[in-house]
Design goal:
InterPro entries: Glyas_Bleomycin-R_OHBP_Dase, Glyoxalase_6, VOC_core
Protein name: VOC family protein
CATH class of the largest domain: Alpha Beta
Number of domains: 2
Shape: globular
Strand content: 15-25%
Pfam family, one: Glyoxalase_6
CATH topology of the largest domain: 2,3-Dihydroxybiphenyl 1,2-Dioxygenase, domain 1
Number of helices: 3
Distance between the termini: 41 Å
CATH architecture of the largest domain: Roll
Helix content: 10-25%
Organism: Streptomyces ficellus
CATH superfamily of the largest domain: 2,3-Dihydroxybiphenyl 1,2-Dioxygenase, domain 1
Largest sheet: 4 strands, mixed
Radius of gyration: 16 Å
Order of helices and strands: EHEEEHEEEH
């Protein structure tokens, strides 16, 4: 017997609110906030397509003190650099820029609560790079 991933849980420490963090991720990923969840709830989820784990934002005590050991790697529809700019405009910050001169690499970002995630190149960029060396 095996297990399925039901939720990917994102911690949300004060002063951040799980609902507000869910709204941020809703704009990043294009999935709506679960209509059963409300402002002030300790747990707020995004509605995702059937068969995929939901993102769950959970109110926790204590601030984050170390780098996340698990994080999301996003492959955007837009070119990577345009997606980085879009997500920064939504409230994310750049933590580490790992882009390389040959067009590869990624950008380490943090959501408004400080949780890290990475933005990689888009599928189109990946296909164009597959013919290059390096």
């Amino acid at each position: 017997m095996t297990s399925l991933i039901r939720h990917i849980t994102v911690d949300c420490a004060e002063p951040h609110d799980p609902y507000e963090l869910a709204e941020f991720w809703s704009q990043v990923l294009g999935f709506p906030v679960d209509p059963r969840d409300e402002r002030g709830d300790d747990e707020v989820a995004l509605e995702v397509p059937a068969g995929h784990p939901a993102l769950l934002f959970l109110r926790v005590t204590g601030e984050k003190t170390v780098k996340n050991r698990v994080h999301l790697d996003l492959q955007p529809e837009l070119p990577r650099d345009k997606e980085v700019a879009r997500v920064v405009a939504l409230g994310a910050t750049v933590v580490d820029d790992r882009r390389t001169p040959n067009g590869r690499g990624w950008v380490v970002m943090a959501d408004p609560a400080g949780n890290e995630f990475c933005i990689e190149v888009s599928a189109a960029e990946r296909a164009a790079l597959s013919g290059t060396n390096g």
